[in-house]
Write a structure and sequence with these properties.
By secondary structure, the chain is α+β, with helices and mostly antiparallel strands. It has 4 domains: about 150 residues, PAS domain (Beta-Lactamase), CATH 3.30.450.20; about 70 residues; about 200 residues, Response regulator (Rossmann fold, 3-Layer(aba) Sandwich), CATH 3.40.50; about 160 residues, 2-Layer Sandwich (Heat Shock Protein 90). Helix content is about 50%, strand content about 15%. Helix 2 packs antiparallel against helix 6 and helix 12 runs antiparallel to helix 13. The radius of gyration is 48 Å and the shape is elongated. The two termini are about 40 Å apart.
Length: about 775
Amino acid sequence: MTQTGSVSVLRSLQRHLTAGRLARRFAAVSLMLGVLLAVLIGASLYLVSSRHLIRQHHGNVEANAALVARQTEGLIATLVETVRELADNNVLATALVDSAGKETYLLPFLRSFSRIASVPVSLIFTDFEGTPIADNGQREELARVTPADMAWLGRTIAAGRPDATVVRENGTAYLLAAQMLIYSRTASPEGALFYKVPLNALVLHPEAELHTAGEAGHPPHDGCMTVDVPLAVPALLGSLGLTLRLEAPAAPTAAFQSWVLPAYGAIALASLLALYLGSRAVGTHMTRSLRELERLAGTIASDGFTGQRARVRGDDEVSGLARSFNAMLDHVAAIQHEKETRAAEEITIQRTLAERAEHARNQAEIATNEAERARQEAVMALMVAERANAAKTHFLAAASHDLRQPVQSLVLLTSALAIKLGDHPAASLVGSIETSMDALCRLLDAILDVSKLDAGTVSPNVQAVSLGAIFERLDAEYRLRAAEKGIGFRSVPNSLTLCADPALLERIIRNLVENALRYTDSGRILLGCRRGPEGVRIQVYDTGIGIPAEHLERIFHEFYQVSNHARDRGKGLGLGLAIVDRLARLLGYRVHVASWPGKGSCFTLEIGDTVLPLPAEAVADSVPPESADPTIGTALVVDDDPLVREGLTLLIENFGWRVLAADGTPAALRVLAESGHPPDLVIADYRLEAGATGLEAIRAVETAMAASGHRLPLSVVLTGDTAPERIVDAEASGYRILHKPIAAKDVALLLGEASAATPEPAQRPAHRSRGPILIGG
């Protein structure tokens, strides 16, 4: 199936699930909840049943192993006792010294012992030197006797006492044992009775095997378990330490699934069917009043309002909707009556005006006065519009500040949670939260940029700038991003050196490239520049969707986007071009656009003749230096918001620092006096409780530390305000100003900077400033 076909199928399924009557949708939602509940209950029952059957199965395997062990012990005891009785037989001992007896009854008698208790065995009679005299005919078949076996027998005879051992031949284990033959006339050993038995022939279970002491055996197969049972054997075999090992499946999965899973499935299907039918019936009953409202609204739309009323049943939410609908109908009736009354009054007024038409010339002076009053009303309207614009600015500032507080706490707590989780499976959820928080932070940072530009706190730092270096950085960054969207990106190399602010100029060009990348789905993007008699023209050309002519003047307004009615965050925030327009006006540049709907657009930035003939070595480098890695120290956090204070505390402690937390200036001085560790870093919120500010808290802390002879710490002021006057006041303090929300990497940079060497109090100015920072982009 092609990608287009897959998309159409998904859209059709979505329309089917969301369209139709509320009863069907209510039943569908209930069915999905029932499926989830059935899965959870079924899984729980399955786990409980599985564990019970597994425990029962393990008990059966252990009981079976014990039974097989008892059977094996009986076979071994019978074998050893039978051979011992043969060794004590005086007739057999006499036959050792009587050749006639050997031929007459020894050999036929031994042939009857080819098996003992159904176990194949090789028997050999030897003299006192270990020379074979007779056997039972099995020494070359089931248990072949080897020269090594006879050598072991010779050593046993020399020792003069019975013995047993286990040997392995070609991967098969054999039991070797010997009993001494005592001649009754001399009461002395005249020979030995040697026997050899396959070890596993003594085990009646096909999955069981025998092991000796110190023998590990092969590991169990996948999905299997083993049970070891020590054997109680005669004293002759006691030194071998025989153990029976039984291997069996670890769990009876096949037997369990054969009846449990079908039973659970049948019960779940029956329950889901009953749940769906019941939910459908309940939903139909609950939406009866809604259907009546729908029919009434259709009747009014087609035939007009003629005094219809909705029927009210009960006192629930749907009944409340019916009452509100009736109230709306009453309001409509009142409006119709008022229109009729006004129409009659309008007719009367028209007649009066017609009668007074002849007096129009006498009213010329009155008309002039009316015109002047209209002009004054226009002036008042302009003033109202200006006040509305100022109110909008203050509203954005207040909303931004109120949003930055909880956003700051979310960013800090999320970063601390990500560090705590590490490789935990839930870390992916934290990554999703951080992605959403990044989108919200970009919006707040863009609002802050607009506010700072409106406040006039951004001052250009004009210097020599290599335009080619800026193009190279943008080309390296956006070539791969464009390739991921399946489009091309190319920048035309140049060697121009401009007299401009490097950071602000790159910000303008970057925003134009970002805008082109968002609205171009095929084709290519071209970044280049042209030098003419009036200066330099930097152009960004794309083959995107284009902009209709009626929208060209409004695209540089805040939050205005032509083709993003759904407010898709992937297409930006609607602030990028507004920032471009403000930065261009700040630097004295001119930006304009030419666009062709369906074919593409071309944004042009016109810069005056500021080209400098400077060498490449004199060009400013706008890349900030790397900060030192943070080391262990002490930080003082002053914030009246407990969530932000807790988030900063957790995050800084995760970097190995000690944290002193306070909600205001008195608490900060108290914890500073109680702690024996002067802070290396002070982070204070600009706006504290009861009208206090973080600037006052920092100055009080520095005064206390200077009086104690400690060196002054790195002091940072956090603010969530975006109002222009607030930004001017904060940056006029001379301290480092950072705007909320700050991320974990910003905190790490502050800790690294605070860890560096700090000048002595006598050498350090009263208020240390790192310079204003333009957050965003």
